[in-house]
Amino acid sequence: MPNIKLPDGNIITFEKKVTGLKIADKISKSLSKQALVISVDGNLKDLNFEIENDCSVKIHTSKDKEGVETIRHDTAHVLAMAVQELFPGTQVTIGPVIENGFYYDFARNEPFTQKDLQKIEKKMKEIIERDEPTHREVWEREKAIEHFKKAGEIYKAEIIKSIPKGEEVSIYFHGKWHDLCRGPHLTSTGKVGKYFKLTKVAGAYWRGDSKNEMLQRIYGTAWPSQKELDEYLNRIEEAEKRDHRKLGKEMDLFHFREESPGSVFWHEKGWTLFQKLIEFMRIKQKHAGYKEINTPEILDRSIWEKSGHWEKFGQHMYTSTTPDEKIFAIKPMNCPGCVQIFNQGLKSYRDLPLKMSEFGKVHRYEPSGALHGLMRVRAFTQDDAHIFCTEDQITDESLSVTNLILEIYKDLGFSNVILKYSDRPEIRVGDDKVWDKSEAALLKAVKASKLEYSVNKGEGAFYGPKIEFVLRDAIGRDWQCGTLQVDLNLPERLGASFVDKDGSKKIPVMLHRALFGSLERFIGILIENYAGKLPFWINPLQVIVIPVSSEFDDYAKKIYNKISSIGLNCEVDLKNHNLNYKIREHSLSKVPILLICGKKEVDSHTVTIRQLDSTKQENMEVRKFLEIYSALNKAPSI
RNA sequence: GCCCUUGUAGCUCAGCUGGUAGAGCAAUUGAUUUGUAAUCAAUAGGUCCGCGGUUCGAAUCCGUGCGGGGGCACCA
Question: What DSSP assignment string belongs to A364-430?
């Protein structure tokens, strides 16, 4: 006589054991139609799972995350069914739900083509129409292993072997086709619906390990309705339109070429943007008490050996041999150089905290497959800084770094920031007592920031704990940008010390921090966040002056000179094109302000302003325009 | 690095099963002097990514190298 407690608190009593399907029936017809899975005391179960004891349940429909995920999981199964029907001999491996969809990894000698995907989709729809009923069986381990081995499903057999002893080995059937699976699943393939799409094929290592063989992964997306599917596909399309590689070309900011894969050729406009960001940072960092330095790009091998980079990071380092056979490395990080500046001359405790910033260009030999536009490059500029301080100063300094980062992000339009805190990894250097102290100090700063944070256990650097700053962009994507790391190792390795109050020599703590992380990457993020329509103050081409006809060229030039002289990035377009053409051209290249001058403007000594994405025109005295827009030509917080 | 895919004019792309290349935009020149998202015409523009092979003949087929894209691994 199970008593079933519903989410609204009501209790329904059944005479004998009961399934989720029956409970839904009892509640309402519409619920029983929409029901997909059920939570029984918080555990997700199939709708025909038999409930014998008292419990509380929640029946999930496509309106819940659980319901949608089950649809996706079942779609993955249907995908595997279709593939095995169409391509006998293909082995199945795993097929989990991911954000917005699912994938399934297959082992097959021939590659799947784009055409195959269409064929598979068609077959999937057939299977859904066949409405194969689902049922679940629990098998004995050895029997299951034998069964899958015999069926030529080597990977499945291996998965079963790795299921912890004591855990059930459940097999799901959809008609005759069956697969090892934890479940839960819909009651039949017909429940899946047809609102799915296979999106891409890709390679993926078996068990995610690059030492293993490569499988073929088919990605797909699935939704409860056509509308949601279309919306999702639209979102993808919109994101593609923002792609910084495409916009960077269209806006004439930068390009890449074969001679230096993963390194940026910055064009004038892109470089102006780059320099504007640096100028902005210089002001903010000066206020925050940083001293800017600069260290060599190329340093002798010996310092990299001392710092540990040669051993730990050598794989990613560019080296260079001189004609006289000396080996130098091109810096992959700025820290050793900075420590050498600290080491020059005697430092006192009175000098601490000493904050040295550097816009340092570093080179790292990244694997070719990792490169991606500005987001992942082989040569990039860090807005780096190293703070030398005492252990007691870690919390305050970390907090002031956090505040600086938040201010800077906010100025650039990102106010949604979360933190990731990582503590000691298994392989590390230094005494556990020192770790205790530095972790506590850093965590205190994290908490004091009052930001949302997550803890990544064991993911700190080998030399100390770290925080990563993650910002969310306009279309909801997260980007890891800033980082703050406590370093208890490098200062000692490179012989840094200061004279303490009592006259003794002590080793300082070093904080590594970067705000944007990489200027290149951050510019990529900015472009995508704003879809190329950069805020006025950071825009590398702010104003274009357009005469209505060549008769007004002189006036336009005069205006252009005035605007340039107050430090705005301005151009004048004297080309032999009509007004409509010029407006279209410059609007497409996303210039925020177009100034139109004709007879009217010359007579009244005004300009007519046309803002990007607005057809409204505003006529204004030249003097007033200069006043307003020179005030707008700086960061909001400055 | 690994799997798949891709490389034609400055850009975006067409070029079927092998017969040495074409469009639109941009550029140049000329005409036009224009009031808020494409004025007209003419001209010029190519080592079809590199190397090798098959073939009477290769942008096209094969091999290989390099680059791009989608993933995986990597992101110290």
Answer: ----GGG-BTTTB-SEEEEEEEEEEE-GGGHHHHHHHHHHHHHHHHHHTT---EEEEEE---SS--S
Is ipTM over 0.90?
Answer: yes
Q: What is the pLDDT of residues A281-316, one digit of tens each?
A: 999 999 999 999 999 999 999 999 999 899 888 999
Query: Which pLDDT value is given to residue A331?
Result: 97
In angstroms, the CA A345 to CA A334 distance is 19
Take residue A286 and report the two structure tokens written for it.
């000066």
Q: What is the Cα–Cα distance from A334 to A357, expressed in whole angstroms?
A: 10
Q: How far is the C-alpha of A124 from the C-alpha of A77, rounded, in Å?
A: 10
Task: Check residue A226 and give its pLDDT.
Answer: 95
A240 touches strand B (CB under 7 A): no
Residue type (1 letter), A146? E
CA dihedral A159, A162, A165, A167 (to 10 degrees): -40
A74 within 8 A of A124, measured Cβ to Cβ? no
Q: Which nucleotide is nearest, taking the CA of residue A98 and each C1'? A: B71
Residue A473 is given by DSSP the state -
Q: A337: Cβ under 7 Å from strand B?
A: no
Secondary structure element (H or E) that encloses residue A302, with its range: helix A301-307
**pLDDT attached to residue A346:** 95
Strand B: list positions under 7 Å from protein Cβ: 1-5, 7, 11-12, 27, 30-39, 66-76
Residue A508's nearest CA partner among A516, A500, A498 is A498
Q: Are A195 and A206 contacting, i.e. CB atoms less than 8 angstroms apart? A: no
Q: Active-site residue numbers of A?
A: 335, 364, 382, 384, 386, 466, 512
Per the structure block, which two tokens stand in for A88? 């006998």
Rounded-to-integer distance, Cα A108 and Cα A335, Å: 47
Backbone angles phi and psi of A619, in degrees to 5: -95, 135
Low-confidence ranges of chain A (pLDDT < 50): none
The pLDDT value given to residue A215:
95
> In angstroms, rounded to a whole number, what is the distance separating the alpha carbons of residues A16 and A53?
9
Q: How many CA atoms lie within 13 A of A459 on its CB side?
A: 9
Q: Which residue has the tokens 């949601």?
A: A228
Q: At residue A304, what is the residue type?
A: W
For residue range A496-540, what is the model confidence (pLDDT) as tens digits?
999 999 999 999 999 999 999 999 999 999 999 999 999 999 999
Name the closest residue (CA) to the C1' of nucleotide B70: A202
Q: Is A526 exposed, middle or buried (0-12, 13-18, 19+ CB in 10 A)?
A: buried
Q: Are A18 and A55 in contact (CB under 8 A)?
A: no
How much is the pLDDT for A146? 94
**Which of A's residues 516-555 have CB atoms within 7 A of nucleic strand B?**
548-551
